[in-house]
Design a protein that fits this description.
With about 300 residues, this protein is of the alpha/beta class. The protein has nine helices and 16 strands. The strands form four sheets. An eight-stranded mixed beta sheet has the order 3-2-1-4-12-6-13-11, sandwiched between helices. A four-stranded mixed beta sheet has the order 5-14-7-8. A two-stranded antiparallel ribbon has the order 9-10.
Length: about 300
């Protein structure tokens, strides 16, 4: 029986952590070690962690928030050093069924896959799909577009299939992938770290990612990164989300390289500013305008 190293990052996760721990501990597949990397939480998260007595749970505390990519790498390397055969990277703002690990392993074996991700539903709207597979869209700057996103789950996306991208809110990965492709690029503080990782896997060509639809898995989207904020009864994209996504998209395109990426980076300057003007979810003030353009140039010089 393979040993699974489950890696999760906590950062002010007190509202979601206990449900995550309960679902993981109740897994039918028990040969796992959970590596919790705390990224400098300032809420009650550490108190919750201090009360954990399960010997399968190993906790590392960072004094500061090192970002998602670097913290994931910490956990992955600890798991590999402990002899884990596979890594299961997970968010902790998720809830899932007791057969999650069993079913991921089953699809992996059936399809001889290196990586497997489940169908992911919105926790707040459990009949609505957030992820049912994905592929990179060149015409949108190589962004991975989620299949079935924001549609009712009517059984249309219930077939196991090969995909190009899977989010690391739940992704089972054979250790050979890290030996061949490497770890997460730590220049991504958050967002695009999994995009970059999956793009490298796609072009390495020796490893396939598969989508497993028959798993109950629910994501509390944006609950930890605060990607949305409420102001005057309206919902807007948060400044941190804007800063990271604008900057990291530019850096991602730089890494891909080639004439098309260079041209797309140039056009993103105009696209981002047009989006500022027309997107109702972006605040219309000078500080947001400045943030968008500063983030763009930070991506160029990253």
């Amino acid at each position: 029986m393979e040993k699974i190293g489950v890696v999760t990052i906590t950062y002010n996760s007190e509202d979601v952590l206990q449900c995550f721990l309960k679902d993981l501990i109740e897994q039918r597949y028990q040969n796992f070690i959970l590596y919790i990397i705390d990224n400098g939480s300032t809420d009650n998260t550490r108190s919750i962690l201090n009360n954990i007595s399960d010997k399968r749970i190993k906790i590392s505390i960072n004094r500061n928030n090192l970002g998602v990519a670097q913290a994931n790498n910490q956990g992955i390397k600890k798991a590999l050093n402990d002899g884990c055969d596979q890594i299961l990277i997970m968010n902790n703002d998720v809830e899932f069924e007791p057969h999650l690990i069993d079913k991921l392993l089953s699809v992996q074996k059936k399809k001889n896959a290196s990586l497997v991700a489940p169908k992911i539903m919105y926790y707040a709207n459990p009949d609505i799909i957030w992820y049912a597979g994905s592929k990179f869209n060149k015409w949108k700057g190589f962004l991975p577009i989620h299949t079935g996103i924001d549609t009712i789950d009517n059984g249309y996306y219930d077939s196991i299939c090969k995909v190009e991208y899977a989010p690391t809110c739940c992704l089972l990965i054979k250790k050979k992938v890290f030996e061949d492709v490497g770890f997460m690029d730590e220049k991504y503080f958050v967002y695009f770290d999994d995009t970059d990782f999956c793009y490298r896997i796609l072009h390495h060509k020796d490893h396939d990612i598969y989508y497993a639809p028959n798993i109950k898995f629910y994501h509390k989207v944006g609950s930890l990164t605060k990607s949305f904020v409420k102001m005057n009864k309206k919902v807007y994209r948060g400044n941190f989300f804007i800063q990271q996504t604008v900057r990291n998209h530019i850096y991602f395109l730089k890494k891909i390289g080639g004439l098309y990426s260079i041209i797309y980076i140039f056009f993103l300057f105009f696209i981002n500013n047009i989006r500022f003007l027309v997107n109702p979810k972006i605040k219309k003030n000078f500080s947001t305008f400045l943030l968008i353009n500063q983030s763009y140039f930070k991506g160029i010089f990253l």
